[in-house]
Every structure is written in C-alpha cells, then in structure tokens.
Write a structure and sequence with these properties.
The complex is a heterodimer of chains A (about 120) and B (about 425).
Chain A lengths: L1 E9 H6 L6 H18 L2 E6 L7 E6 L2 E6 L7 E10 L3 H9 L8 E6 L9
Antiparallel strand pairs in A: 1-5, 1-6, 2-5, 3-4
Chain B lengths: L4 H35 L2 H22 L5 H22 L3 H13 L2 H5 L5 H8 L6 H13 L3 H7 L4 H17 L9 H20 L16 H14 L5 H14 L24 H15 L6 H13 L1 H4 L4 H14 L3 H13 L3 H10 L2 H4 L3 H13 L3 H14 L3 H12 L7
Helix pairs in contact in B: 1-2, 1-3, 1-6, 2-3, 3-4, 6-7, 7-9, 7-10, 8-9, 10-11, 11-12, 12-13, 12-14, 13-14, 14-16, 16-17, 17-18, 17-20, 18-20, 20-21, 21-22
Chain lengths: ~120, ~425
Amino acid sequence: MHYMLMFFETTAEVERRNDPERAPAYWGAWNAYVSDLQKSGVVVSGNGLQPPHTATRVTLRAGKRHVQDGPLPDVKEHLGGYFVVDVRDLDAALELAARSPNVGAGHTEVRPVLPPPPQNG
Amino acid sequence: MTTSRAEERAAEPRAAWGAVERAARGAYGRLVANLAYRFHDIAAAEDALGDALKAALEQWPSSGLPASPEAWLMAVAKNQLRQGARHRTMAQAPETRSAVAAIEAALGEARLASAGDERLALLFVCAHPAIDPSLRAPLMLQTVLGVDVARIAASFLVTPAAMNQRLVRGKQKIRDAGVPFEPPTGGDLVARLESVLEGIYAAFGAGWDDAGAGTPSAEPLDEEALFLAGLLAEQLRSEPEPLGLLALMTFSRARRGARFDGRGAFVPLAEHDTSRWDRAAILEADRLLLRAASFRRPGPYQLEAAIQSAHCQRLFSGRTPWAAIATLYDYLTRAAPSVASRVAHVAALAEAGRVEEARDALAAVDRAQAAAYAPYWVVAAHLAKLAGDREARQSALGRAIELTRDERLRAYLERQRSLGDPPAG
C-alpha cells in the first residue's frame, strides 16, 4: 500500500535550520533518515519543503481571488516535507514514521494514498 | 420413539432456526474473523455472513441441515465475498486486482477445511493503536461476538445511530488505512496486548454503574467481556495478564449480587452480605489468579485481581485483610499509576489504621486530576471524619454527591451525609 508520511515540525525546530550551531545536527539527522529510507527501497516519491515563511495561500471567495502571505496564522506545527512510501501495511508505515527526526517535538501524520479513480471500460 | 411423520416435519423448520442461532452465537466471531482476516474488510465479512445466515434460513428447512452448518455458512459467505471482491476489483487499480487474484488462489478448499480460529487476530485489529480507544470495546463486541448495536449503544450511553456510525467509520479506517490482520509478535505483542485488555475491561465496565440509572435498556456486557477474556487467555497461553483480567472480572461478578440490598439500596464492598457472594465463582477466580501467578510475571491486572481476591477473603475468614490490600495497592500505584489506584490506596491505608500515611498519600494525589473523581472526595471525607473535621467532611461528601451519576450511589452518599458515618473505600 502507498502511504504519505507528512513531517510536521514546531517553529523552534524549523528555526534550527538556520542556526549555525544547531543546523549541522538538524540536517545530519534528516540526511541519515532520508538515506535510510532511500536505501530500504520503499520510497515512491518525496520532498523537503522550504520553511513556512515562504508559503503563499490562495483562496477564492465569491469569485474573487485572494492571495496572502504565509501559512494559516495560529498553526503551531508546519509541514516540513513528505514521503510517499510503498509498504505492506499500516504498521510498517508507522514504523518508518516513528523514526523521523521531527517526532520528538512535532509529529508525523501517516495517511493511505487514495487509489486512482476507476477507469471506464 | 413414536414420533409421527407430521410431527417430524413440523419440527424441522424449528430445528433449522435453532441451528442458525447456534451457528450465529457459537461461530459468529470465528466466521467473521476468518473472513475478515482473508479479505481484510470487517464490514464486508459481516455483510457476507449476514447474507449466508439469511440463505441458511431459507434453504435449510427444505434441504435439511448440512453436515457442518459452520462450514456451509463459511463457504456461502466466502463465495459472496469473492464475488464482492471481484466486483470491487473491476473498479480498482491493477495491483489491487492481482492481490485479489492471489487471495482467491490461496483460498482453496483444503485451506477452508483447516480454517483456524482468527478471533485472536481480530481482537488485536479492533484494539490497534490507530483505532480511537473509546471505540475498541464496541468494535470487539460487535465483530467478535455479534452483539447488537442497540445493546452496545445503551451500555456506552450513546444513541444506536451514533454508535452505528462510529462502528462503520472504525471498520472503514481499518480497511482503508491498511491496519494489518497479522497479530503482533515478540515485544510488540506485549505492548499491543495492553490495549486489547483495556478494551475488554471497558466492555466489562460498560453498563455496570449506570445500569438502572436513567438507561433502562442498558444490560451489563459482563458475560460478553468474560467470554472475550477467556478467548484471549485460551489462545495466548504465553501471557499471564489475560488470566489476571479474567480472574479480576470473575471476582467482581461473583460479588455483584451483594452490591444492592433487598430494597435496591447500594451496599459498599466492606459491608456486603457475603452469603450473597458466588462462592464457586470466587474459588474459580482464585484458581485463575494462581495460574497467572505461576508465570512469575506480575502485571496490573494480576495485582488488581489479587486485591479483589483479598477482599473476597472475608467470605472465608470473616475479616478483610486491609494491611495486605494496602500493600497490593502500593505495588499497583507503582506498576500502573492512576488516580483511581492512588485513591484506593489511600482508602486501604486508612482502613488498615495507617491514618498518617493515608493523609500523606492523599495529599500526594494530583488535585487537578482527582477533582472530578467522586471516590477521591469520599476518601477525603472519611479522613476528615477521622480528624474530627465535620465541616470538611460534609463539604467533601457534597462534592462526591455532585459528581455521582448513579442514582443509587448518590442516595447512599446522601444518607451518609445526613447520618454520622462516612462510607469507606
């Protein structure tokens, strides 16, 4: 089954990326995790994301397009990246999720990927 | 035997009905579990079995009973599921289609004949950490025992429609999130077993205290919970805690007849008329506990059962061994810290005459966590009385009364407040 692992990080964790003292440990942990996952052959796709301040939100209300800076305010944890993995079952996906470096402070959400829609004929 | 032909014929349909009922009661969980295990879809397994039971009712009266009703039902339901699976496959991705083909290939008649008991696997599925804890007991009751949704709903104090919706969603989650049907092994087993035990104990507790208190349709599900615990203990012979849970529930049930007096008034445990206890059940529970203890791996359920065993000593010796109970609660508060075990520890210390220690232990209970827990205030009232603080006692009892939903328990506490003696434990 295909599952998406969504890595949510606290603001403090995201800030570690640019702190010269703490960045090496931050990236070291993620690189190790990512290369482990790649080596195990379960990765279908995946990406890290630029930090939340680079986000732009778009809404359409009464036919009018609104474009705003940043993620939703008051969100405490931000999506920092994701993987789609192909594993046997939920337990296998949870096992991978439990090893992601963000779970100590933030959380990882695991969701099955919707199967493709039925094709006619 | 001189039964006439006409009588025989007249008896046939009823015999068929009886067979359906027996198969449904005895084998329901086994069949649902086997089907769900193969097709990874509990709801579809239940539907298919429902259809097979309907077919049995239509066909058995005229065709006669099959040699094995269970195997017949299994075969019909499996057929139904295979058609259903094929039907769904048409509308699904190629890899799903090949998976279904693989399942079908594996479902030879030989395998059907040796179909094992997958109810244990189903219990672990229902109690998977990915399932909402409050839904685990209802799922177990419905899928393994086929308990009516209305009855589950009444015991868990929700409407049948709401309970049904939650059960449907739970089964969808199990299917769509890919919750595995293989029971866990090794260290995972012990960790996951905890939530299975918790689920069964929740089923046992449901409908107990609230029975008769504003929910006339609620019947305790203790019979069902005991069955599930028995099943778990029988199939998981490597673990002592299922036996501990079975013993604990057997002790509680053995005393149920004494919880209320002839006029329906609540009687606290220490004042039970022991002649109303079920002596045979208590002896059976003691045997179960001994078997659990022989593993030499104590756990919270074995400790709780040991505490109940100590309470039941009064039947044989005429007195309650409070010092031993206090010691057991001391272990329990370390093994499984909870407000309930801490409060019970305080009560046992006070009964054992260790009032100073009881006071310290009560002060150490997290007030914020305990504030909404009625027994905390009952124990606080008891200690206030021992200290001669009448005002503190009355106000603590007042809090306990406010927090108690069960009318009969509330009536008891109100009587205590108007009389001199506070309740113990």
